[in-house]
Design a protein that fits this description.
alpha/beta, about 240 residues, 5-stranded parallel β-sheet
Length: about 240
């Protein structure tokens, strides 16, 4: 079973200690491996995730010095981060805003251990059952797209067109393809860069050769010189993984 990475962000040392102990107790009961890190404010959290990686789950206070927890959550969603967020705070008036950032739950201190355990169970269920998705910035706002529904990404100037499977209209994303590739690598291993302008979902590839790939939709996309061998290996590994 893959280890679950959890970060706890709270400016109260006693609360940090209690939550870390409670999370480890939950993990022991569920027989689930976890890695837990703690931080005292949003700035420390941002440094921690740069030093390591984004957590699977963030237990987040709201009333903190500097950048508050709700603003941090909005920033993470604006960046397209899909981590599970549980607010654990003394401020009950922000509960409605918690749903705006797709929080798992909103717990008001003091928190009972059984309620925290239930939220952790729900977060894991969402991680395992919900199809992987990313938030993409578009000219009209944010768009949440399920990765299984994406056939390929196409770079045009400073934008990226997200082409869906089937006859759907592509969505124009206002972020460059390199940034999107970095985000995708955090949540999925099914996308491969075949060309400086194209990032393809290997699940949609019907045939490959040295100069182009053919998608199951019938579309053909170019393969850059020098990318065929790596593409061929990634394609084989993808289907071996599905067979295991």
């Amino acid at each position: 079973m893959e280890s679950l990475y959890i970060i706890i962000c709270d400016d109260e040392p006693a609360q940090l200690s209690w939550m870390e102990t409670a999370v480890k107790a939950w993990a022991g009961e569920r027989k689930r491996p976890v890695r837990v890190d703690s931080c005292r404010n949003a700035e420390q959290f941002l440094f921690l995730r740069e030093e390591k990686r984004d957590p699977d789950l963030l237990l987040l206070d709201i009333d903190m010095p500097g950048l508050d927890g709700m603003s941090l959550a909005r920033r993470l969603r604006a960046e397209g981060k899909e981590m599970q967020i549980v607010f654990v705070t003394g401020l009950g008036e922000y509960a409605t805003e918690g749903y705006e950032v797709e929080a798992v739950s909103y717990l008001v201190k003091p928190v009972e251990e059984k309620r925290l355990f239930a939220c952790l169970d729900r977060a894991v269920w969402r991680l395992e059952k919900e199809p992987a998705a990313l938030l993409f910035e578009t000219a009209g706002g944010m768009a949440r797209v399920k990765l299984a529904e994406v056939a390929y990404l196409e770079s045009t100037a400073h934008d990226t067109w997200i082409h869906g499977r089937g006859a759907r209209e592509p969505v124009r994303c206002t972020v460059g393809i390199q940034r999107l590739e970095e985000r995708l690598q955090e949540v999925s291993d099914t996308f491969f860069r075949i060309h400086r302008s194209f990032l393809v979902n290997l699940a949609c590839v019907a045939r490959i050769n040295r100069k182009e790939i053919l998608l199951d939709s019938g579309e053909a996309l170019p393969v850059a010189r020098g990318r065929w061998e790596a593409l061929n290996q990634a394609y084989l590994e993808y289907y071996r993984g599905r067979a295991e």
